[in-house]
TrEMBL record:
Belongs to the UDP-glycosyltransferase family. It comes from Glycine max. It comes from the Eukaryota. Keywords: Glycosyltransferase, Transferase. Coiled coil: none annotated. One of its GO terms (molecular function) is UDP-glucosyltransferase activity. The gene is LOC100779160. It holds the Pfam family UDPGT. This is Glycosyltransferase. Its EC number is 2.4.1.-.
């Protein structure tokens, strides 16, 4: 697109969790690359994480990305001092308080709208009040869920039809009704989001849904070729205005951009790449469960044993610091035996950089949508191990629709994965299966084709790039009409 969108100014307001901040910052970069002035709204303690990411964007577009902070009212409401990030309170009693505290950002947010008058607000689904805030100033609000079209549709259907109510037991399969493909699930996999009458939760859910319906539309981190049927279904059957503009992670072109996403990596990238360079093509399994999943020591122990038994080289990201004494989560002598064969990253990994390395042959993932799409973009087959949120839907998309993964076989949704749900022999079997020649070749071929499609989608004139242009054009027209 040759047009100049200089006058357009968009606010991006991510929920304070890595899985939400990372893609929305990528999105701001994408708009900035099209000449749109972008402002990312966040809290003081999250601002340095975002600015570190933006600093790596060395082209002219970084000048178009600003950060504006809003004080997060944590202490007065019962949250510990310094708690401005949901990952530290997820699946604790503090999470509802955290969520409530975000609503206290409404007033200062409206002050920003008043003074800066952006042309559009792209705000996280977790901030339903932003639709009203934006409307007060005649500004359109776009919703960002951070999930796939497949999951957007499936979630909607669960709340509309509650199909799990027609089963006799938690483990009886039901077909997701009025949904493309014959996708079967159990009540256990659908999770508390839908099946429990949690009054506080449901009222938030309803508010978010209702605010979304009044919003201008939805921006989706996906590409059309990946999930056509579900993108069409979402638009045509659920009647939502939606733009697909992903995979957002592909806006990170240089090495530094790929490294500084989210937290600072706990491993020097040279060390990591050097290790990967010593491995043969497609031989390493990368194991990482996103930014929020917390496994018990007993589950970690089973993973370690499973990896060792599989005989496969691995990189395993574990949320444990080197200082933590008494490694009850590792078998005796594990690290010594695995020298040269396995690399444990304690903390945060440069995931996109790792996934794109040719030595990576498979990815054990919790099916967070960012991770899933990053694997798709890198052409890496997956071993799916969903934990909570909408991850069981993503597993179905990966294993049954796209057929680029094998399930580890988790049966039950949980908040953050504290339960020990997969024994070592199951892990061993899944890893062996994904590397087994026949199984893999079909899967790897399909994964590589999808990766090419992903790249084409974000290139000039590709489906996502064009959809982004359409969106910017529309916002431009809207803002000139409202002037
Ligand atoms: N991530 C990373 N290094 C890590 C763990 C996670 O870079 O060690 C990034 C990953 O690339 C993805 C995001 O964090 O972009 C996690 O998002 P996802 O939706 O996969 O899972 P969530 O953390 O929201 O459960």
């Amino acid at each position: 697109m040759g047009s100049n969108y200089g006058p357009l100014h968009i606010f991006f307001f991510p929920f304070m969790a890595h899985g939400h901040m990372i893609p929305l910052v990528d999105m701001a970069k994408l708009f900035a690359a099209k000449g749109v002035r972008t402002t990312i709204i966040t809290t003081p303690l999250n601002a340095p994480i975002i600015s570190k990411t933006i600093e790596q964007t060395k082209t002219h577009q970084s000048k178009e990305i600003n950060i504006q902070t809003i004080k997060f009212p944590n202490v007065g409401v019962g949250l510990p001092e310094g708690c401005e990030h949901s990952d530290s309170v997820l699946s604790t009693d503090l999470f509802p308080i955290f969520l409530k505290a975000t609503t206290l950002m409404q007033e200062p947010f409206e002050q920003l709208l008043l003074h800066q008058r952006p042309n559009c607000v792209v705000a996280d689904w977790f901030f339903p009040w932003t639709t009203d805030s934006a409307a007060k100033f005649g500004i359109p609000r776009l919703v960002f869920h951070g999930i796939s079209f497949f999951s957007l549709c499936a979630t909607k259907i669960m709340s509309l039809y509650k199909p799990y109510n027609n089963t006799c037991s938690d483990s009886e399969l039901f077909v997701i009704p009025n949904f493309p493909g014959e996708i079967k699930m159990t009540r256990l996999q659908v999770g508390n989001f839908h099946t429990k009458d949690n009054v506080g939760h449901n009222s938030f859910w309803n508010e978010a849904e209702e605010s979304e319906e009044r919003s201008y539309g939805v921006v989706v981190n996906s590409f059309y070729e990946l999930e056509k049927d579900y993108a069409d279904h979402y638009r045509n059957v659920h009647g939502r205005k939606a733009w697909h503009i992903g995979p957002l992670s592909l806006c990170n072109r240089n090495k530094e951009e790929k490294i500084y996403r989210g937290k600072e990596a706990s491993i020097d990238e040279h060390e990591c790449l050097k290790w990967l360079d010593t491995q043969t093509t497609n031989s390493v399994v990368y194991v990482c469960f996103g930014s929020a999943v917390k496994f018990s020591d007993s589950q970690l122990l089973e993973i370690a044993m499973g990896l060792e038994a599989s005989g496969q080289q691995f990189i395993w990201v574990v949320r444990k610091s080197i200082q933590e004494k008494g490694e009850k989560w590792l078998p005796e002598g594990f690290e010594k035996r695995m020298e040269g064969k396995g690399l444990i990253i304690r903390g945060w990994a440069p995931q996109v950089l790792i996934l794109e390395h040719e030595a990576i042959g498979a990815f054990v993932t919790h099916c967070g949508w960012n991770s899933t799409l990053e694997a798709v973009s890198a052409g890496v087959p997956m071993i799916t191990w969903p934990v909570g949120a909408e991850q069981f839907f993503n597993e179905k998309l990966v294993t049954e629709v796209l057929k680029i993964g094998v399930p580890v076989g988790v049966k039950k949704w949980s908040y953050s994965g504290v339960d020990c749900c997969a024994k070592w022999d199951v892990v061993e079997k899944a890893v062996k299966m994904v590397f087994a020649k026949e199984e893999l070749e079909g899967m790897r071929k399909r994964a590589k084709v999808l990766a090419q499609m992903a790249r084409r989608a974000v290139e000039e004139g590709g489906s996502s790039d064009s959809n982004l242009d359409v969106l910017i054009q529309e916002l431009g027209t809207l803002s000139s009409l409202s002037r």
